[in-house]
Specification:
The chain is mainly α. Helix 5 packs across helix 7 and helix 8 runs antiparallel to helix 9.
């Protein structure tokens, strides 16, 4: 009977060497051979495989993932994705494509599947906790007034958002984060 208070390494200290090779050179060769950087699409497809999703929705998600550029922006319009898929799938609704896009947009990294910077920031902010201070105002800013922020027109932002300078600074910090 093994003593359950003992550690695995205490009892089987030679296990790693016996089963995984003995030399650092062997280990290094394995890492070089089998570890390569994962592309964004591969990372998203891996997440998709973890989702309980219908075959139809999986096909839609793959089409959406294929339409993303290296930065994660959606380069093809949803209408084009829908029309490309509707010729292959019977009874496909545009709303289904939109729903699957929203599901993909919840994958990691936050902001994936956005059409532009404002959309990307909005997706990231939406994934924050509901208790995050200034979340709603930050969302309003990136959706409606991002150009003003980019042009450093803080006076206009203060009036439009009906906030003070201290609050604006906190909102900008939240967006940057």
């Amino acid at each position: 009977e093994p003593d359950f208070d003992s550690q695995w390494d205490d009892r089987y200290d030679d296990f790693s060497a016996a089963t995984h090779g003995t030399g650092a050179a062997e280990e290094s060769e394995f890492e070089v051979q089998y570890s390569r950087p994962q592309s964004l699409q591969e990372h998203l497809l891996w997440q998709l495989e973890l989702c309980p999703i219908s075959d139809k929705d999986r096909a839609i998600a793959i089409a959406i993932i294929d339409a993303l550029d290296a930065k994660g922006y959606l380069t093809t319009g949803l209408e084009d994705i829908y029309s490309g898929l509707s010729s292959q799938m019977d009874d496909l609704d545009f709303e289904e494509v939109t729903a699957v896009l929203h599901r993909v947009q919840n994958f990691d990294p936050a902001g994936i599947g956005a059409v532009d910077l404002a959309d990307c920031l909005a997706l990231q902010i939406q994934q924050l906790s509901a208790s995050t201070p200034y979340k709603d105002t930050a969302l309003q800013l990136v959706k409606q007034h991002l150009k003003l922020l980019g042009n450093h027109q803080h006076d206009k932002l203060l009036k439009l958002l009906e906030i003070n300078e201290s609050q604006l600074e906190k909102i900008i910090q939240l967006i940057r984060r």
